[in-house]
Specification:
The complex is a heterodimer. By secondary structure, chain A is of the alpha/beta class. Chain A contains 14 helices and 15 strands. Chain A folds into three domains: 1-277, Queuine tRNA-ribosyltransferase-like (TIM Barrel, Alpha-Beta Barrel); 289-401, no CATH class; 431-456, no CATH class. Chain A has helices spanning 50-56, 79-82, 91-95, 138-148, 167-189, 216-223, 262-270, 279-286, 332-336, 339-347, 352-378, 381-391, 424-442, 450-456; strands at residues 5-10, 20-24, 31-33, 35-39, 61-65, 103-107, 124-129, 132-137, 152-154, 202-207, 230-235, 253-255, 275-277, 289-291, 310-312. The termini of chain A are far apart. Chain B has two domains: 18-297, Queuine tRNA-ribosyltransferase-like (TIM Barrel); 303-390, no CATH class. In chain B, helix 5 packs across helix 6 (178-198), helix 9 packs antiparallel against helix 13 (392-404) and helix 12 runs antiparallel to helix 13. Chain B starts with 17 loop residues before the first strand and ends in a 9-residue tail after the last helix. Classes of the chains: A alpha/beta, B alpha/beta. Bound molecules: zinc ion (2 copies). One zinc ion (ZN) binds at residues 325-326, 329, 331, 333-334, 360, 363 of chain A. Chain A: It holds the Pfam family TGT. Chain A: One of its GO terms (molecular function) is tRNA-guanosine(34) queuine transglycosylase activity. Chain A: Keywords: Cytoplasm, Metal-binding, tRNA processing, Zinc.
Chain lengths: 463, 428
């Protein structure tokens, strides 16, 4: 197992309180925590090509889902597994053309995961690839980790997406997760004989979204027998942060709970989260929303939690507005472009809108985390959190315009009880809408071929 | 009729460009004729551009997801915006308030706009051309509308593009109706005069005329002479891209080369010549030999969205399963940022990665767009270098052999067109 170093700098490691730290993996940029992992889709940060990411963002750590790469496995060997790499290289990194110094965290599923109709089993979990639902065997996941060599692997957990689980089911969740973790760590680092055949990926063990008492045995084992193989914890709900046993309190904690607001991020940080995944950043960009919040806002008299957390750039009131998205923002989008352009790009359905918003929204989050770290060090985090709650609205603004096409694997976590984001009628409508938009984009241009028109759904060839 | 107005009575037209002709193909011992290829530099309000040039089409003030910096990084110094689109969104009022298209899209290099007429006529099936202008139904609510030469110029004045185009009466080049063709040609001359009169900023925007006349060489000749007399800063040859249904897959390209040849033969040597809506790499290589300087086409960017990569031996569809585990660059040895290895400051993008993203993530399209536009721009660089070094005929031969694999597979229209300017592709 590769040497990792995680130092909690402030305060003492075992205290469940906001903490700053530094996560160091040889060869990667050190990550100052609390920090966030940028979410990827099929290995790419949506709308950001590698050069844009390098030139206009500070993105230094990514979360990648294996389910985005293993379409028809095991029947067909996924292209990712066929890629050749030197012993010190990561095929995952090479395949996704990502730079050497970026930290790659791999989990089995996207964040948030899409509900799968088939339940998990004792040896496999249910996943969704771009060609449909299928099973991922625990053994195959371990094999994948060996092959693709991420920096950090999030261990398999038996989770129930979008449903309340009964007592029996909960027991099973713990037993299975315990078994997955034991097998995986044993196979990756245990009796492998030669030290060089050890996996280079470090293991983040899941903590289940259950009460302490329900997973006591498992948690104890993590702190005991499994301790030497574990480099971090992956938690699925904020309250799990409070049940981490002392023995493993110094391990970095990654949250995969999908906070919906910066308030929820602050809550996770207040409970000692170190690395956080934030789906709403990309969702805001897709929705045409420019995030607009800082930590900690100056507390004014009579604050009433009324400041919006973002600006809906679809609004026509910005059509001729030459000011930056957010006054004083130093991101590429705000220093080089203006609201009028973003509004135009959104309304013209030009893809650059999403790129420019992603750059700004990631920058907003960067500044937010940097200020949070400073406040923890200065001992002013709690005041800041309070000021934040008193200043900003409790939820992000409603999206009014249409975003990019959402595909099946983009859908949000949902249970069978709630309407699935891509219910069939929605999907059809969506499909029709996209075809219409594509057709529209063809209308005013000169030399589109009949084939292209046909592909776009604009017309069929008359034969 | 306006076309018969004396030159002296016409408004004197200032120019906002200078044109430096640097090199032409010269006669060699082996050839009797010489190609008409020329290399030059065009100095425009937003910087100098090398000719021959390919202009990528940033239809709605954005090139398929690329930032202006990415576009500049690929080497673009002059791109196209479409007047019809910008007139609809964001609209003239906003363009005026924002201060034009350069300001809107954060692009400090040059922009060329079309008149907007072509798109209405060719795509809005209900468009109807009268002496006043183009009548059409609003694509939004069906309201009858009219685009006049004055309105087109006014819109382009608001856009602030460095090169603006006259409104012309466009009909399909291959239209068999000679009377209609003649009428369109003559009307285009009258509209040019109206455009010249309406043009508010000739000292900072260059108005180009558009030569019409279909495939009728007499009409083209007449139009060339009349329009050259108007002394616009640049000259376009129109009516080429509209009618031809170019087949994306067989790539049956049909540039009416004799017509291009005729026009360029009659045009003044000291002005840039722009062939609108052309084209494919082979169209460009042939048209340069016939004396054209400027080209635009949506094909490289549009085809990228369908997963097609342009390569020296034709296009490759990277959505095809054979590329799923092809870990080579899009094009071996390509110097674009995507294909260059990471060690050389590139991104090290592979075909397998494009396949993985194609049609699923916008990043895949953005990367392929960068490669494709770079391909066209670097093709233009090689063309220009070949002309400057007086080896264009050899370049042309090499280009077509590589594209088609062997001389015998080169389409006959290419062979014939190039024969006319002293290049025999079939010669050993
Ligand atoms: Zn910004
Ligand atoms: Zn390339």
């Amino acid at each position: 197992m590769r040497n990792t170093m995680f130092n909690v700098l402030h305060p003492a490691p075992a205290v469940f309180a906001p903490r700053v730290g530094m996560f160091v993996l040889p060869g990667r940029k050190p990550v100052h925590t609390p920090h966030y992992l940028s979410l990827t889709s099929r290995g790419a940060v949506p709308h950001l090509t590698q050069d844009v990411m390098r030139d206009y963002t500070s993105i230094d750590s990514l979360y990648i889902a294996l389910e985005d790469f293993i379409e028809k496995a095991p029947d067909d060997v996924p292209p990712l597994y066929k890629m050749q790499a030197e012993a010190h290289e990561s095929t995952l990194r090479k395949f996704t053309c990502l730079p050497e110094d970026i930290l790659l965290v791999m989990g089995p599923r996207r964040v948030p995961p899409v509900f799968t109709p088939m339940p998990n089993t004792g040896t496999a979990i249910s996943i969704l690839t771009s060609v449909g639902f299928r099973k991922l065997e625990a053994e195959d996941y371990i094999e994948a980790v060996r092959k693709v060599r991420p920096d950090i692997v999030v261990g398999l957990a038996d989770l129930v997406v979008g449903l309340q689980s009964g007592i029996k089911r909960r027991e099973k969740m713990v037993d299975r997760t315990h078994a997955y973790t034991r097998d995986a760590t044993k196979q990756l680092y245990g009796d492998v004989g030669e030290p060089e055949s050890e996996s280079s990926a470090v293991y983040f063990a899941p903590v289940l979204p259950l009460e302490n008492t329900q997973q006591m045995l498992y948690l104890d084992d993590l702190g005991d027998e499994l301790r030497e193989h574990i480099s971090g914890l992956a938690v699925y709900e904020a309250s799990s942060l409070a049940i981490v046993p002392d023995k493993i309190g110094c391990l970095p904690r990654l949250t995969l709970s999908g906070p919906k607001t910066p308030h929820e991020i602050l809550r996770e940080i207040s409970l000692g989260a170190d690395l956080i995944t934030i789906p709403f950043v990309g969702m805001a960009s897709d929705g045409g929303i420019a995030l607009d919040f800082i930590f900690a806002p100056p507390l004014e008299d009579g604050s009433s939690a009324s400041k919006p957390l973002g600006i809906d750039m679809w609004s026509p009131i910005y059509a001729a507005d030459l000011s930056p998205l957010v006054q004083g923002c130093e991101c590429y989008t705000c220093t080089k472009h203006h609201r009028a352009y973003i509004q135009h790009l959104l309304s013209a359905k030009e893809m650059l809108a999403w790129t420019l918003l992603q750059i700004h929204n990631h920058h907003t989050i960067d500044c937010f985390f940097a200020a949070v770290r400073d406040s923890i060090e200065a001992g002013t985090f709690t005041e800041g959190f309070l000021a934040f709650e008193q200043t900003y609205q409790p939820s992000l603004p409603q999206q009014t315009g249409q975003g990019p096409r959402r595909r099946g694997y983009h859908a949000q976590a949902s249970g069978p009880g709630e309407p699935k984001l891509n219910s069939s009628s929605y999907d059809q409508l969506d499909d029709a809408a996209e075809k219409y938009a594509e057709a529209q984009s063809f209308v005013p241009t000169p030399d589109v071929s009949a084939e292209e028109l046909q592909i776009s759904g604009f017309a069929v060839k008359d034969t | 009729m306006a076309a018969k107005m004396s030159v002296a009575a016409r408004k004197q037209m200032p120019s906002a460009l200078t044109f430096d002709l640097l090199a032409k193909c010269s006669q060699t011992l082996l050839t009797v004729q010489v190609t008409k290829a020329r290399a030059s530099t065009l100095h425009l309000p937003h910087g100098s551009v090398p000719l021959p040039i390919f202009m990528p089409v940033a239809t709605q003030a954005s090139l398929k997801g690329l930032t202006p910096e990415q576009l500049a990084q690929i080497g673009c110094k002059l791109c196209l915006n479409n007047t019809y689109h910008l007139g609809l969104k964001p609209g003239q009022a906003v363009l005026e308030q924002v201060g034009g298209a350069h300001r809107l899209q954060g692009w400090d290099k040059n922009i060329l706009t079309d008149s907007g007429g072509f798109q209405m006529v060719s795509l809005l099936k209900l468009a109807n051309v009268t002496e006043e202008g183009v009548r059409f139904l609003s694509p939004h609510d069906g309201t009858p509308m009219l685009l006049t030469p004055e309105h087109s110029i006014s819109l382009q004045n608001s856009i602030g593009s460095d090169i603006i185009m006259q409104l012309d009466d466009v009909i399909v080049t291959t239209s068999p109706d000679r009377e209609r063709m003649k009428q369109a040609m003559e009307r285009s001359i009258r509209w040019l005069d109206r455009c010249i009169d309406a043009h508010k900023y000739p000292e900072r925007q260059n108005l180009f005329c558009i030569i019409q006349g279909g495939l009728d060489l007499d009409l083209r000749r007449k139009c060339s002479v009349e329009m050259a007399a108007r002394d616009t800063p640049g000259i376009a040859i129109g009516g080429l891209s509209g009618g031809e249904a170019k087949d994306e897959f067989c790539k049956v390209s049909v540039i009416p080369t004799s017509m291009v040849d005729t026009c360029t033969g009659l045009l003044p040597e000291n002005k840039p010549r722009y062939i609108m809506g052309v084209g494919y790499p082979e169209d460009i290589v042939v048209s340069v030999a016939l004396g054209a300087d400027m080209f635009d086409c949506v094909w490289p960017t549009r085809t990228a969205r369908f997963g097609n990569a342009i390569t020296p031996s034709g296009t490759v569809n990277l959505r095809h399963a054979t590329y799923a585990d092809d870990f080579s660059p899009i094009v071996d040895g390509c110097t674009c940022i995507c294909c260059r290895p990471i060690q050389q400051g590139g991104l090290g993008i592979t075909r397998a990665y494009i396949y993985h993203l194609a049609a699923k993530e916008t990043v895949g399209a953005h990367l392929l767009t960068m490669h494709n536009v770079h391909y066209l721009l670097s093709l233009m660089d090689s063309i220009r270098a070949a002309i400057l070094e007086d080896r264009y005929p050899a370049f042309v031969r090499d280009f077509f052999n590589r594209l088609y694999g062997s001389a015998s597979k080169i389409p006959i229209w290419v062979v014939n067109a190039l024969n006319g300017v002293g290049i025999d592709l079939l010669a050993e």
